[in-house]
Specification:
Strand order of the largest sheet: 1-2-11-5-9-8
Shape: globular
Radius of gyration: 16 Å
Number of helices: 0
Structural class: mainly beta
Strand content: 35-45%
Oligomer: single chain
CATH architecture: Sandwich
């Protein structure tokens, strides 16, 4: 079997065979990624547990048919997917990054409306972080809605420096 580089495709740094068995340490702003705590996602906004910025979680999701989202998503979830909601309270305005351990879809909502992300990227190579989505947030309460293929999802939100 050819690697992505041998096949002429760009290497993303996320190929399973190219990473060490133990994930590499993430950058300092994502240091909490390596110490996740379990957290069950809410099935609606009223039952969304709070994510603490800087604390990674291993989120347990529910079948999307049992989840009521807080805002319309730009992407329609597939019937077999899992999903859930989390609340986050922002005390300081800034750019916030949501990191996920899979290619899960991530929306952030405020007052029943979806927010527009300002950046998308892959996580650091071999860190276990698959996807990162950035949002510019002001002080207030937000809901994070996620959907994906797996019943569990590594997830974290951090305020970026600057």
């Amino acid at each position: 079997m050819l690697s992505a580089a041998q096949a002429g495709a760009p290497a993303t740094g996320h190929e399973a065979h190219s990473c060490p068995e133990t994930p590499v340490a993430p950058p300092a702003d994502l240091a909490g990624w390596v110490r996740p705590v379990p957290l069950v996602a809410g099935r609606d906004a009223a039952h969304a547990p709070t994510l603490a910025p800087g604390q990674a979680v291993t989120a347990t999701l529910s079948p999307v048919a049992t989840v009521t989202t807080a805002a319309a998503s730009a992407r329609t979830a597939k019937p077999a997917e899992q999903g859930g909601l989390f609340a986050v309270s922002v005390s300081a305005a800034g750019r916030y990054r949501i990191a996920a351990g899979s290619a899960a879809w991530i929306d952030v909502a405020a007052d029943g409306r979806p927010l527009t992300s300002v950046a998308h990227s892959h996580g650091p190579a071999c860190s276990g972080i698959r996807k990162m989505v950035d949002f510019d947030l002001s002080p207030g309460r937000y809901l994070i809605q996620v959907t994906g293929d797996a019943a569990t999802l590594p997830l974290m939100i951090v305020r970026l420096p600057g």
